[in-house]
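hey all, quick one before standup. I had two proteins in the batch that finished overnight and I want to keep them in one place so we stop losing track of which output belongs to which input. First protein below, input sequence then structure tokens straight from the run.
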Amino acid sequence: MVTVISLGGSIVAPDKADERFLRDFTHLVETALAEDSARRFIFVVGGGGPARAWQEAYRGVARSPSADEADWIGVMATRLNAQLVRGILREWCPQAVVTDPTQVSAFEGRVLVAAGWKPGFSSDYDAVLLAERFHADTVINLSNISQVYTEDPKVNPQATPIDRISWPDFQALVGSEWIPGKNVPFDPVASRYGANLGLRVICAAGRDLANLKKILQGDSFLGTVIGPR
């Protein structure tokens, strides 16, 4: 069984690497691997605070900033974060960090770590491609929000959480355009491809590891399920 997790950079490195989270997350992963010999993980790591900070600096200084250049800066931040995760889990992950999900021919070991690929989308899209490649029907998307809301709760305090939503309704919420550094529950480009695959995505709070354990065990959890009607 392959479990694909899109591991938000805001969890791994909100401004710098979060050692406490990484230590606790590693413990959860190693426990899950020990308890189920058939389980394998794919972690696709985002850029987090460093990506946004460096993109902001680029836009503030460059005479003619381009979306592609901003995206490449974000991609490089994902690769730094992914290398960190891979290094911590090296015992389980003999392969190098994946930077092109279309060129992965095999899955050695029990953990595979991937990073951003190229401009035009976020690492969420890479997670969807790897789920397709390794026949996973679900992507667990861990970020700094516990659920998807009807609107941005920071803008509208009356926004309400959503337990389950169809792909068309979710796409109406997040739109269809990718902007480098865009902060949405799941990337619009990844959403479009995931909808075409009939993929299920679970959005949940990345720091709530007790809740993640429930997801992995198939128990009731707090989050939003995005999927076919």
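OK second protein, same deal, sequence then tokens:
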Amino acid sequence: MNTLAGIAAVVVTYRSIETIDDCLARLRAAEDVTEIRVVDNGSDDGTLTSVQRHAAADSRVRFIANPDNPGFAVACNQGAADSHAPWLAFVNPDCLVETDSLARLQAHAAVLGDALLGADLVDEDGVRDAAARRHDPHFAAMLRAPSAARLGVPVDASRIVQPVQAISGALMLLPRALFERISGFDTGYRLHAEDLDLCRRVREAGAAVAVANDVRVMHVRGVSSRSKPLFVEWHKHRGLWRYFRKFEASQRGLLTRCAVFALIWGRYPFATLRALLRSSQGGL
């Protein structure tokens, strides 16, 4: 244990049976984790049975079983509200932390002061996740140049802690006081873009957003989304439209707003088709 205060790890599950057992075993072994809150959004694949086994074996593990799926943002806020530790870590069920991952993130964040920190996310083959380091979406720029849709930011190998505009919601750590100051996740998002929204509001509140390049965590992407690709794509595009309306639309004219609407929703059929093809091929 280091001298910093404890961490409450919040895990939101939905049909996460492939990875939830390993995820929770690693969180239970992780340094400085004093509470683990699992919020399940109506899984029907045995996820809750696995969570219950961990809860029976470790008093730090508690779960909330939602009868339906109110969305990722709602569930994250539920888990945070049900815990008390002064630090919060939002951990996807397909993120597999090492024993010291969260403690090292916490140490970096404490040095920065008010900060939201992410890790160097990689897949099973060690390939970096581009979503770990991002800049804000700029929809008017996307109309002028399709390359602007790529939000990924290159790794700055010269920096241990790299400031960025946004990090991935797959793994986020921040002080509870900061999370409460910005009123948590925006529950108007159902799935996707709520992490971009949170990062932007953290920065608007005067806090830092950064990635710890020396903390590597495996992220087995898409475990939950494979079972409902149409649902995922619908809410991904809905989330992007909400983000645009919230942060950029007021600065744009009617023509640009209509063009952005067409850009986002015109992409939806093609994204859905790709998602269905990936799902039929087992996520490859």
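Flagging for whoever picks this up: The chain has a mean pLDDT of 91. The chain is about 40% helix and 20% strand.
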